[in-house]
């Protein structure tokens, strides 16, 4: 599924004295099977942007085309769009409310009007895909750990079989182990289920290690958009926006300044390791 944003702007409180321009002239194209990280300072417009992608917020001006169709056309099927573009809000576990994990995951597909058998099959599949332990399917969501609750919430959206999955700060509030687990899970889902995953994150380190494309936002605009190693070249500009490149970027630049011939564009610890060993003549 391709999504095109053409000069999308959004004003909160349009026409009031509190008017805020949250998005300004955003143009971008999202293709099939991408893994995108959206990064930016607080208030830069990340959540506002993601909520445009499934029609939850309507642009003040500009157009959004999904598979070539203008989603603001009067006869456009918004309900279908909501099914195709699944949105996992920040702290989604706050929205778990059914008595069992399984019932909770059934909620979305049930609402899509599917029959009982299909709904249950979808729920099983989704829980399986997020690696949720079977012996806990019928326990109360409130008895689970933070990481498990997060998985259930993600499964709830996955059960609607979206083609694009958007997650707003999917690892917020989790410990480092829980964070790695969720990122590993998303990477696996993106590859095995052939879906596009878009995640909002504050952590450059996490994003650098997992995504294929980074979109950097600042004050409602897109400042950078590209592969991690292209984006981190601009680490000085990122700092001016209150962001930082991964630690690896700084380390590699420092080594280069000390005349070790390393690849300054390495973005992951693994890439850095190989480059340093090479420069030292070990491999
Ligand atoms: N419901 C709202 N009403 C009015 N202004 C809002 C509303 N939601 C967001 N804003 C404003 O719009 C701008 C963009 O906010 P948004 O929540 O999209 O940023 P964000 O990048 O997701 O921030 P964070 O990292 O804190 O989640 C900010 O100036 C914010 O104060
Ligand atoms: Mg936000």
UniProtKB/TrEMBL annotation:
- Any one Pfam family here would be ABC_tran
Q: Where is the ABC transporter domain?
A: 3-244
Instruction: Tell me the keywords, alphabetical order.
Output: ATP-binding, Cell membrane, Membrane, Nucleotide-binding, Translocase, Transport
Record GO terms (molecular function): ATP binding; ATP hydrolysis activity; ATPase-coupled transmembrane transporter activity
Question: What's the chief localization of this chain?
Answer: membrane
EC main class here is translocase
Q: Which GO terms describe its cellular component?
A: ATP-binding cassette (ABC) transporter complex
In which compartments does the protein localize?
A: Cell membrane
Q: Which CDD domains match?
A: ABC_cobalt_CbiO_domain1
**Record-listed E.C. numbers:** 7.-.-.-
Q: Which domain of life is it from?
A: Bacteria
Membrane topology per the entry is: Peripheral membrane protein
User: What function is annotated for this protein?
Assistant: ATP-binding (A) component of a common energy-coupling factor (ECF) ABC-transporter complex.
Q: How does this protein assemble?
A: Forms a stable energy-coupling factor (ECF) transporter complex composed of 2 membrane-embedded substrate-binding proteins (S component), 2 ATP-binding proteins (A component) and 2 transmembrane proteins (T component).
Instruction: State the similarity comment.
Output: Belongs to the ABC transporter superfamily. Energy-coupling factor EcfA family.
The protein's name is Energy-coupling factor transporter ATP-binding protein EcfA2
Give the species.
Lachnobacterium bovis
């Amino acid at each position: 599924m391709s999504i095109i944003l053409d000069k999308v702007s959004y004003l909160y409180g349009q026409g009031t004295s509190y008017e805020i321009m949250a998005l300004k002239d955003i143009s971008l194209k999202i293709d099939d099977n991408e893994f995108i990280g959206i990064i930016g300072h607080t208030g830069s417009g990340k959540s506002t942007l993601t909520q445009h992608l499934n029609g939850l917020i309507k642009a003040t001006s500009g157009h959004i085309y999904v598979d070539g169709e203008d989603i603001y056309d009067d006869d456009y099927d918004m309900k279908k769009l909501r099914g195709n573009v699944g949105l996992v809000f920040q702290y989604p576990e706050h929205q778990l409310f059914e008595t069992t994990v399984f019932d909770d995951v059934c909620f979305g597909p049930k609402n899509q009007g599917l029959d009982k058998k299909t709904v249950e099959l979808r729920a099983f599949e989704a829980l399986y895909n997020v690696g949720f332990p079977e012996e806990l399917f019928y326990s109360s969501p409130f008895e689970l750990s933070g990481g498990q609750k997060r998985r259930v919430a993600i499964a709830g959206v996955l059960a609607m079989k979206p083609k694009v999955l958007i997650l707003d700060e999917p690892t917020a509030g989790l410990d480092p182990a829980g964070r790695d687990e969720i990122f590993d899970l998303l990477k696996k889902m993106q590859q095995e289920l052939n879906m596009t995953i878009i995640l909002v994150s504050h952590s450059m380190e996490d994003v650098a290690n997992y995504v294929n494309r980074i979109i950097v936002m600042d004050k409602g605009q897109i400042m950078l958009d590209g592969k991690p190693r292209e984006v981190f070249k601009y680490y000085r500009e990122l700092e001016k926006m209150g962001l930082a490149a991964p630690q690896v970027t700084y380390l590699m630049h420092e080594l280069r300044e000390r005349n070790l011939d390393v690849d300054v564009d390495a973005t992951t610890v693994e890439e850095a390791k190989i480059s340093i060993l090479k420069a030292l003549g070990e491999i």
